[in-house]
């Protein structure tokens, strides 16, 4: 009987001690940490705290590029595995709207992982309207500009216009509906970018937003930033992740150890009883009478 009990107890301990516990997937929504616009024809201008980020060509076909970054490591536990990532942004204005002829052609906007550090300056802080701001404002250090990662701090981009991977991490077609939501759906490259931001936060610098038609006149989209007045229209990065497998807590080990100790005590008591009977058989016979 004891051998059977010991086998069951040992099996319980093996199961408790060896089998990991997997937590179910967790989904979080992050607001953008920093966002800026740089302008080719205004290389000393920037927008860092304005209501919109511009992506595409202005009326003369001069490119505008957006930079954005999310603080992934501050919101997801180290060691987690990123499962999916979806970025949603909202249109605030389209090129040509100022003159009454808004661009009606849907434009593709791509995300490219930035590979050079950049600063988020206060340029444009307090501006509440988007119209009339597509040339930016004189850069206030350390805002990024077309030529510099940090304006007036001797930290130029390796390539004017920003340093970023040529690989497209994700793309979506953005229409002309004001307040319309557009989502860059999860891709393996986008997931890899977010995983990199989590695992190497000091080297994860976010994404460059590019419009392949940026040298075509009147093609930009102005997308709301975190400084837009309506929080529901600000950028959102929705991330689903799995936490690393973890062992059963120490309390379970203590519980299992207690079972084993109790079983051992029972075993010793049984052995002692059997030994007493074998040494004094006459006592057993007398008891039976």
UniProtKB/TrEMBL annotation:
<protein>
    <submittedName>
        <fullName>Uncharacterized protein</fullName>
    </submittedName>
</protein>
């Amino acid at each position: 009987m004891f051998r059977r009990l010991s086998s069951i107890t040992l099996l319980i301990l093996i199961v408790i001690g060896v089998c990991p516990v997997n937590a179910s997937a967790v989904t979080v929504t992050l607001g953008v940490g920093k966002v800026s616009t740089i302008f080719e024809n205004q290389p000393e201008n920037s927008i860092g705290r304005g209501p919109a980020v511009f992506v595409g060509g202005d009326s003369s076909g001069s490119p505008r590029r957006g930079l954005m970054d999310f603080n992934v490591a501050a919101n997801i536990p180290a060691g987690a595995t990123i499962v999916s990532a979806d970025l949603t942004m909202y249109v605030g204005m389209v090129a040509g709207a100022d003159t009454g002829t808004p661009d009606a052609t849907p434009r593709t906007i791509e995300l490219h992982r930035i590979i050079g550090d950049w600063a988020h300056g206060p340029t444009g802080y307090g501006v509440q309207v988007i119209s009339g701001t597509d040339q930016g404002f004189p850069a206030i250090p350390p805002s990024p500009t077309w030529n510099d990662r940090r304006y007036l701090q001797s930290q130029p981009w390796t390539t004017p216009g920003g340093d970023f991977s040529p690989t497209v991490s994700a793309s979506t077609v953005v229409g002309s509906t004001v307040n319309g939501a557009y989502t860059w759906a999860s891709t393996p490259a986008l997931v890899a970018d977010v995983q990199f931001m989590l695992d190497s936060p000091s080297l994860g610098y976010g994404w460059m937003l590019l419009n392949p038609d940026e040298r075509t006149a009147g093609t930009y989209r102005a997308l709301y930033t975190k400084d837009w007045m309506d929080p529901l229209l600000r950028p959102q990065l929705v991330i689903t992740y799995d936490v690393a497998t973890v062992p059963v807590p120490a309390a379970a080990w203590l519980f299992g150890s207690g079972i084993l100790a109790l079983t051992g005590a029972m075993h010793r008591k049984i052995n002692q009883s059997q030994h007493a009977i074998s040494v004094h058989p006459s006592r057993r016979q007398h008891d039976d009478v």
